[in-house]
Amino acid sequence: METREEKLASWASPSVTSSHGLKVLKGSFSLNSNESRDCMRISQENIQFHQIESSLLNTPGDNMGKDIDPPYLWHFEAISFPRIRPGRLVLSVPKEIFQKIQESWNLHPRTIEVFLSNNGVLTTFKSFERVCFIIKVANSRTTGFDCVSVTHDLSRRTTYVLYHHLFNEDAVLNTLLSMPDRCVDPYFFIFAVYRSHHQHIEVYRNTIDDAIQGIERQTGFGNPGRLVQGYRPSMDEYPTLHDPKKITQQLGYCQTDLAIIGHVGRCCLDCGEWLVQAIDTGLVDEEDLPRRGTQSSSPGGQKLAQQFSDRLKTIRLMVRQDVEYTRRRAVMLLSQVQQMRDRTQSQTTYMLSVITQSDAEYTAAIAVDGKRDSIAMRTISILGIVYLPATFVATFFSIDMFNWGGTSGDEATSLSASPSIWIYWAVAVPLTVITILIWIFWSKRENQKSNKRIMIARVKAPKPDSTLTITKVEPAAPSEKMV
């Protein structure tokens, strides 16, 4: 039954793949310790998609090492499909070609299901004549979508390897070519992907670390070594932050990348632990050792069988050491990711406090300006209160109460006041006093209302329960023992 991912999967079109090439590795090895150096052959070639069928028919054992006793000759063949199109549910192989490979190599039926997984899958399938390994790293645009399906066929004495969407195809193949004697062990093909994936995570971690160090230099906060005397004398001098919000945004990017690398790193660690456990199981499992077809009743045959069995065990132990080394580096990588996460959180807290302090200073400046404006408006209001009644009265009594003098014909007149001018003062002064008294009364009334609201709020506030009592526990005497 097809999974949801398999139903939504997009297979490569033959018209698209016709312009792309594939890399194929083939090799043959003798497990006879006396002949292994002379009978180790490995070749690499580039083929087109339409040549895959002929490559499947031309197995490594057909033209390599025919002069060697077949029971001691083991083969492998590996094909790598590059990432042609982006997308999570996109495959880089046409469906017809994959079906031919799966039928010829006896790949496990769950190969495509694992390849389309998003969170990473590590699994082993065993049968009487065959052992299958499928691995898919956790998807990430920064660390790749590496997949590998390995079938170790004991009846054919051949290991079939299908690589898919390798992030660094050359690094994986160069690992196989640099240590060809270990290609007889199927776990080594998985280790090549595991090692390459771990290196990509290391590069990703270095990129994030450089970004965090750059932020620490900008903020001047959290740089290591400030407590060492003489190392950084300017302990209290911090650079000016021109755009704290932009730095906070960069810290947000770092936190996102740290969350991704944390997940990918944990999956990498789980992959190493699974691979170590699988190798240990293979070392103690007699069915996993290629001794089929080498049993002989003669002492010489038994001796040769024991020799190549010991040789395979030696190679597998070397592969295990490489896997264990990479796994321990993954443990330290997760520790580094944790300290980077702590540094990022420290920088984020500092930047938020800087932004809060800056906003508080800006708010305080606004409050000072508002208070200054309030004082000015209050002064204007008081002046208005003082002069408004008189102005009103002057306007109301805008009649001729003064004679400013002048010339009227031949006679000169002087300044004179109207006998009714006392009416102006009799109205203006009391009206001004009444206005001021009204303002004072209104202010006191508003203050009383405000104080009353505060008192009501205090009365309604919950009080501590007075029924609660504190029991004092007396210490036990020195002679008493606690039971």
UniProtKB/TrEMBL annotation:
<protein>
    <submittedName>
        <fullName>Uncharacterized protein</fullName>
    </submittedName>
</protein>
<keyword id="KW-1133">Transmembrane helix</keyword>
<keyword id="KW-0472">Membrane</keyword>
<feature type="transmembrane region" description="Helical">
    <location>
        <begin position="380"/>
        <end position="402"/>
    </location>
</feature>
<keyword id="KW-0812">Transmembrane</keyword>
<feature type="transmembrane region" description="Helical">
    <location>
        <begin position="422"/>
        <end position="442"/>
    </location>
</feature>
